[in-house]
Every structure is written in C-alpha cells, then in structure tokens.
From TrEMBL:
InterPro entries: FN3_dom (IPR003961), FN3_sf (IPR036116), Ig-like_fold (IPR013783), Striated_Muscle_Regulatory (IPR050964). SMART domains: FN3. Gene3D superfamilies: Immunoglobulins. PROSITE patterns: FN3. It comes from marine metagenome. Pfam families: fn3. Residues 218-241 are annotated as: Disordered. Keywords: Repeat. SUPFAM superfamilies: Fibronectin type III (SSF49265). Residues 25-124, 125-219 form the Fibronectin type-III domain. This is Fibronectin type-III domain-containing protein.
Length: 241
C-alpha cells in the first residue's frame, strides 16, 4: 500500500491535470470592422486571445438593420478560421449593426460589441442637363442626382454622339469632381450632337441623364485673292536742241 501522503499527492496531480485539460468556448474577437460595398458589407476582425483550449473552427456573424429594429436580420456561420467575411444582398443606404463570435468544439463564445456599416449602390441619373456653345467650347450643367446610392458622388462621365448615330461615345471619362458643370472643346464641323452625363460613386457609373442637343457652326476657309498689277514703263525720247 502507498503511504497516505503519496495517495493524496497523486490525487492532487490528477486534479491539477484535469483543470489544465479543461476546455471552454473561445474568447471575444477584437478589432471588428464593417466596410461598405456595392449592396454588401466587408467584415474583418482579429481572433480572440484565448481559443478556450480548442482550435477555432469558425465564426458566427449576426446582423440587424435599422429597417427592422429589435429583430435579427440574418445569421451566418463560417466553417473556417478566416477572419474576414462578406455579407451580400443587403439594402443600400440602410445601417446594419453586426457582431461576431468565435466557435470551437465547446460551443460559441461571447460576441463582440456591435459595429455599424452601410452598403451603397450606383447613383441615380443627373437631372436638368443643359448647355451652351461659345467659341467652339461646350459647357454642360446639371443638377446632382436625387439619389446618390449611399456613397459620395466623386465625378461625372460625359458621353456624346452625332444625332443620327445610335452609339454613344465617352467624351469625358471622369470629371474627377463633384462639380455639376464641365467645359470641353467641340470641333466646328456643322454637325448636330447629343450629350448626356452620368454620376460616379464608389459603386461605379450610374444611369445617364436626359440628353442635350447642339449644332456646331461650319467653318469655311476662303483663300485670299491676289491681284498682280504689271508695272507701267514710260519712255521719254531725248530732246535735241
């Protein structure tokens, strides 16, 4: 038989080992961010400091929207330890509140504090397009779209075409400014043109405005007329005295 002290020591070691081997649900992820995209939110975060003694196998993402206060809009569960995830099919302009919780073999851990994100979409068409032609330069003006798609308008694309054509050509790819006027040169060839404008935001180029029509003048170059007048020579006979 073992001495009483040895038996107690063996029991104590077993108890410590049992405590050391105990597994729990993982800790809380950190650094959660939600970046708006085209009708989506791109999420990223850092794994929890503690995995609870068991490898993290996925994450649970829960989101709610301002359109359904107090109700869960959706739950997604990943099946890997990646710390990024994209929520798609969201409504642009709606604010979403998101939490993320880590999962291991022992269950789902405590979720993060909620963060908010807003998806966006293409802007609407500019309105009230007008213009003027002065000395070969076209100046177009318009009003900002009634709906900008939940993201800032960063520029405008201008297209033009001869009126008889069905094909629009890009005249200005991106004005690079939210200003609602733009000037460019147009060759005076006597033709009639249509122009239109489209707003640009982070989602891309939106639908076009109504068109504005202008007819350019015809420039005719008349060569100068040169008249050559032959010199007149007068001969005076000598006078004899």
């Amino acid at each position: 038989m073992l001495p009483v002290g040895a038996v107690l020591a063996t029991i104590a070691v077993g108890m410590v080992a049992g405590v050391a081997d105990a597994q729990t649900a993982p800790g809380v992820p950190s650094g959660l961010q939600a970046v708006g995209g085209y009708e989506r939110l791109v999420l990223s975060w850092y794994p929890p400091v503690s995995d609870g003694g068991s490898a993290i196998t996925g994450y649970q993402i829960v989101w709610t929207s301002t359109a359904s206060v107090g109700m869960i809009s959706g739950i997604s569960q990943t099946t890997n330890a990646w710390t990024t995830h994209t929520l798609t099919g969201l409504t642009y302009g709606v604010v979403y509140s998101i939490t993320v919780a880590a999962i291991n073999s022992q269950g789902t851990g405590t979720p993060t504090s909620p963060v908010q994100g807003t998806p966006y979409t293409l802007p609407g068409p500019p309105v009230d397009l007008s213009g003027q032609l002065v000395d070969g330069y076209v100046t177009l003006s318009w009003l900002t779209p009634g709906a900008i798609g939940g993201a800032t308008v960063t520029g405008y694309q201008i297209e033009g075409k001869p009126t008889e054509s069905d094909v629009w050509n890009v005249t200005v790819l991106n004005t690079g400014s939210a200003a609602t006027t733009h000037t460019f040169f147009l060759l005076p060839d006597g033709r009639t043109y249509d122009f239109r404008a489209s707003a640009i935001n982070a989602a891309g180029v939106g639908p076009a405005s109504g068109s504005w029509l202008v007819t350019t003048p015809t420039t005719t170059t008349v060569p100068p007329t040169t008249t050559t007048v032959p010199p007149t020579t007068t001969t005076v006979p000598p006078t004899t005295t």
